[in-house]
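Standup notes, structure subgroup. Blocker cleared on the nicotinamide-adenine-dinucleotide input:
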Amino acid sequence: MLFNKIAIIGVGLIGGSLARALRANNQCRTISGYGRSRENLDKAIALGVIDDYSDDMGAVVKDADLVLLATPLASFAPLLEKIKPYVNDKLIITDAGSEKGSVVEAARKIIGDKIKQFVPGHPIAGTEKSGVEASFKELYEDHLVILTPLPENKPEQVKSVSTMWESCGARVVNLDVEYHDKVLAATSHLPHVLAYALVDCLSSMEEEGDVFKFSAGGFRDLTRIAASNPEMWSDICLANKYHLLQLIDRYSSHLDKIKELIVTDDGKGLSQLFSKVRNTRENLK
Ligand code: NAD
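Run returned:
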């Protein structure tokens, strides 16, 4: 068994799925929860995801081996302030935030030299659903978890966090914080912005009739993620503003290129571009 007790701050899709997987694999004796919705926490107990919860951060964190922050990004700083008084020398703090730069900056500011015990992480797994009811123990199986270890981290604490995710079936890779944020802006944050924009665009056409009634599989495939948690995604967009704004401009230039080919009736150019892209897409693993 890896842990005697872990504390999950935010028992939703991500935190709840970790708790379920650790429990199913017998890797943790006790799992305590902390959250802002008593209703969600009561459900988490009823579903057997956590053993107990409290409004008192001290009671949840004090004797834990590891704390996972799994709430929307903007809540990390105030929650770290609450956790700080209970950080003993053995406690490992980790998180599941989808952006790492702002998280590391806040953690450095708030927990000071205890930063050596903070091992930032990001599971590359999820769905568009939220809350503990959406959590499931298989979520991390065969998925990547990215850790962005800090120079101050002790290797054995990074190892404990890696082992925890691996015990849930995940493959763990280590990346630099800045590189993580640049890559995830491209592969995850930009696609979410595009999905939100596309649905927003079509819903603004309401006066022209119910266009959604005629939506086909392609539209649904492309926009599934526009049903994701709005609070979480607005936090991610603002936290990763620098990389995301560059990518929105870059994407716009690709859209302009296609627009120009259509304006100039350049079927050959369009077909060449679409063939090149199809080839890239088909070769994606
Ligand atoms: P979720 O909405 O399912 O769960 C979040 C939980 O945090 C909820 O139970 C909510 O009540 C609680 N919470 C919210 N604000 C709080 C606060 N101020 N104090 C205490 N509890 C609070 O969200 P999720 O999908 O589990 O995402 C959690 C984190 O994981 C986010 O930081 C997100 O960036 C990251 N993440 C999400 C995904 C995904 O696909 N959903 C993937 C990887 C990482």
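Discussed briefly. The mean pLDDT is 97.
Next: hand off to the docking folks.
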